[in-house]
Amino acid sequence: MRTSSELTTIGFDADDTLWQNEQFFRMTEKRFAAMLADHGEEKQISARLLEAERRNLAIYGFGIKGFTLSMIETAIEVTDGRVPASVISEILDAGREMLGHPIEPLPYARETVEKLAGTFRLVLITKGDLFDQERKLAGSGLGDLFDAVEIVSDKTAATYARLFNRHGDGPARSMMVGNSLKSDVVPAIEAGGWGVHVPHELTWVLEHVEAPVAEPRFRQISDLGQLPELIESIAKPS
């Protein structure tokens, strides 16, 4: 018999948890800075772009399309409105290329999800553009292993409470696994669940917060290959 505290549901983040994502943003950001090299050094251009992204999150949300619009806005700003149409065209081309980048699964992603499928309810919980996230999931070949997929505008404690009630037995019997402390770990713990941090070397700066090391339901592992053993230790009935 399952106990009221036994783990039954595992949520997974997608970008930079199951497959590479941030590296394509970094590559495009360098390309963008090169386009505007006559108007500032790379660090300056990147800082202005980050300011635009921060301002625009509440308007455009997360994802490549919002990033592309922020690049265009930044180009207009740093050139005092004199950015050539050819540069705008190149920015749009860069955004389209990002939307078509191949899916590169991270180490242990497939084998870990396959190992857990059928034993736990698996829910993919990701934020970003609907079409792009659906494309990446289809390209990953992992879609059939999940019991549910949720693409959300943001990840908060309320988000996790709602989704783990919808697809599981509530937050207390659920775990969220991801590379972002801010989006994947802290709010899941605040909702009453477990939060497992799998660090990625290129996690976006706006996703950085302090690790909740004092929280009893916080765990950190170096890669997804360590997840099944961790879950086994947590999921055992008390």
Question: If you had to describe this structure to a student in words, what would you say it looks like?
Answer:
The protein is of the alpha/beta class and 238 residues long. It has 9 helices and 6 strands; from the N terminus they run βαααααβαβαβαββα. A 6-stranded parallel β-sheet has the order 3-2-1-4-5-6, covered by helices on one side. Helix 8 (181-190) links the parallel strand 4 (174-178) and strand 5 (194-197). Helix 1 packs across helix 2 and helix 7 crosses helix 8 (181-190). It starts with 8 loop residues before the first strand and ends with a helix. The mean pLDDT is 91. InterPro entries: HAD-like_sf (IPR036412), HAD_sf (IPR023214), PGP-like_dom2 (IPR023198), S-2-haloacid_dehalogenase (IPR051540). GO terms for molecular function: hydrolase activity.
List keywords for this structure.
alpha/beta; 238 residues; 12% strand; 47% helix
Backbone shape? elongated
| Proportion of residues in extended strands | 5-15%
Q: Mind summarizing the main beta sheet?
A: 6 strands, parallel
Total DSSP helices: 9
How far is the first residue's CA from the last residue's CA?
Answer: 11 Å
SSE topology string: EHHHHHEHEHEHEEH
Query: Which bin fits the share of residues in helices?
Result: 40-55%
* Mean pLDDT score: 91
Query: pLDDT under 50 segments (min length 5)?
Result: none
Widest sheet, order of strands: 3-2-1-4-5-6
Structural class: alpha/beta
Please give the number of β-strands: 6
Task: Give the gist of this structure.
With 238 residues, this protein is of the alpha/beta class. It contains nine helices and six strands; from the N terminus they run E-H-H-H-H-H-E-H-E-H-E-H-E-E-H. It holds the Pfam family Hydrolase.
